[in-house]
Design the sequence.
């Protein structure tokens, strides 16, 4: 479903991703862990197409399409969702207006009929209930005045409404308390656990993985995947730390 | 006296950022008088759209007297292709209120401006002025706001708020708040800022599937919205917003 091959990317001339290769087939939740500065967020932004992140080598294939050829909004319409580590505040634009425009833009790009106001409202209410987000908050401006936890929940409500085929979630667990973590984790399961969908879950901590239960865990270090294993790898990392777990790999590299 | 002698120059504060060279032949003494009786509320709207009916120079000068406890609401969208100026002199009597919501929008090498002089001549009057400007090309948007509070106009509450959004290099805005306060128990707030499109917001919107054009439209709409918040007529507000947004869509 998502196939990253030998990806090199830089920001302002500084190489961040350095030969990253990774494949996530449909039906799989793949967690990416790694120390600060390893390139985790850069990977998310490169996949999303953020301006300023330049791919110098390698390829990314999404459902057989060259993802890097697409504009950011075209990637969204193709079914890619990027969950932000720091969701952006947009004063003056309500969540409902924003999400309805977003969903209908995607539907239009895919040749589908737009949802009516009523249909959309029903969908938005259903998804906010799933994430235990007060539906009144959807009337407020996008992320303005939201707490850190509310922003992340709203992010998952957006994912629920847009119903992507593939989600790249960049530290969706940061800033969440234990209860919110569970709600968000269960939300990810409810929305994205599907044989036809895939998730790339970028995280620092094992805790979210206890709820979401990844099929695979990879360690990203210095811009490349240095080790891939099953869920037990995350437990090993939690117990022993990055340095100890990565030591044999970096010695060989 | 020959007309040329009366033409203003940029040396005058109120014309400093104007396109004064465009004024030749304009009837500068042509002031529209608006008197609002005590307790009454009057709303005036002015929309100068970019269309065939727009004159090469649009100069609108209004002199408004707002009686005791009366309210004057002005909402204006200046979106013409050429020079346009709305100049308002407001005199506020006891407990009166003046509300201005203004939008300037446009490109080319021309000026669209609001120039206000608000005189609080009696106690307890309030005024609130909100101007939003969106420009590109070599377009300029101005808000020159003068507030005078005379000695016995205690409990005056006056506010001016200006924000400029520059969509392209070469566009500019000028904000000049001027306060002359002779009373000692008053509130006079003023704020001005200028910036460009929020790139983080644009990418965030793109990542949710909004095309660059639609993202820009939503952001511009949100930015301009502040100027029309106080207009409690939904249809009128939407129609005015549409004129401004159409102008942006047509140009960019």
Sequence:
């Amino acid at each position: 479903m998502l196939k990253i091959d030998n990806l090199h990317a830089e920001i302002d001339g500084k190489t961040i991703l350095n030969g990253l290769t990774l494949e996530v087939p449909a039906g799989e939740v793949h967690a990416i862990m790694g120390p600060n500065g390893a390139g985790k967020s850069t990977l998310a932004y490169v996949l999303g197409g953020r301006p300023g992140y330049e791919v110098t080598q390698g390829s990314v294939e999404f459902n057989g399409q060259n993802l890097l050829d697409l504009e950011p909004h075209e990637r969204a319409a193709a079914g890619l969702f990027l969950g932000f580590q720091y969701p952006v505040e947009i004063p003056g634009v309500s969540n409902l207006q924003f999400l309805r425009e977003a969903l209908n833009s995607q539907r239009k790009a895919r040749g589908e009929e737009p949802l009516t106001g009523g249909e959309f409202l029903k969908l938005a209410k259903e998804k906010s209930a799933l994430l235990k987000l007060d539906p009144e908050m959807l009337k407020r401006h996008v992320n303005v005045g939201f707490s850190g936890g509310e922003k992340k929940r709203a992010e998952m409500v957006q994912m629920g409404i847009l119903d992507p085929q593939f989600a790249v979630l960049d530290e969706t667990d940061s800033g969440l308390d234990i209860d919110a973590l569970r709600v968000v984790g269960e939300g990810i399961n409810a929305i994205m656990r599907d044989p036809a969908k895939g998730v790339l879950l970028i995280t620092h901590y094992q805790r979210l993985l206890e709820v979401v239960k990844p099929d695979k865990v990879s360690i990203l270090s210095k811009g490349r995947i240095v080790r891939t294993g099953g869920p037990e790898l995350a437990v090993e990392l939690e117990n022993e730390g990055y340095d100890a777990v990565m030591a044999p790999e970096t010695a060989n590299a | 006296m020959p007309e040329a002698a009366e033409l203003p120059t940029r040396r005058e504060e109120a014309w400093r950022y104007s396109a004064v060279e465009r004024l030749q032949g304009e009837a500068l003494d042509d002031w529209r008088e608006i008197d609002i009786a005590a307790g009454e509320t009057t709303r005036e709207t002015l929309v100068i759209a970019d269309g065939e009916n727009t004159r090469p120079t649009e100069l609108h000068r209004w002199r408004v007297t707002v009686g005791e406890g009366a309210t004057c609401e002005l909402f204006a969208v200046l979106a013409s292709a050429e020079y346009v100026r709305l100049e308002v002199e407001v005199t506020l009597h006891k407990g009166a209120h003046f509300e201005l919501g203004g939008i300037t929008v446009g490109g080319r090498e021309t000026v669209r401006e609001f120039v206000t002089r608000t005189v609080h001549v009696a106690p307890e009057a309030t005024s609130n002025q909100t101007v939003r400007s969106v420009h590109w090309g070599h377009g300029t948007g101005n808000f020159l706001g003068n507030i005078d509070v005379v000695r016995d106009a205690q409990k005056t509450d006056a506010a001016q708020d200006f924000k400029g959004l520059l969509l392209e290099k070469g566009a500019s805005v000028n904000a000049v708040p001027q306060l002359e306060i002779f009373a000692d128990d008053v509130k006079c707030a003023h704020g001005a800022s200028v910036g460009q499109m929020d790139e983080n917001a644009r990418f965030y919107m793109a990542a949710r599937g909004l095309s660059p054009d639609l993202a820009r439209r939503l952001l511009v709409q949100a930015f301009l919205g502040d100027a029309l918040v106080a207009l409690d007529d939904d249809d009128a507000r939407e129609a005015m917003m549409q004129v401004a947004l159409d102008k942006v869509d047509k140009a960019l």
About this structure: The mean pLDDT of chain A is 93. Chain A has one domain: 2-252. Chain A touches chain B through 32 residues (CB under 8 Å).
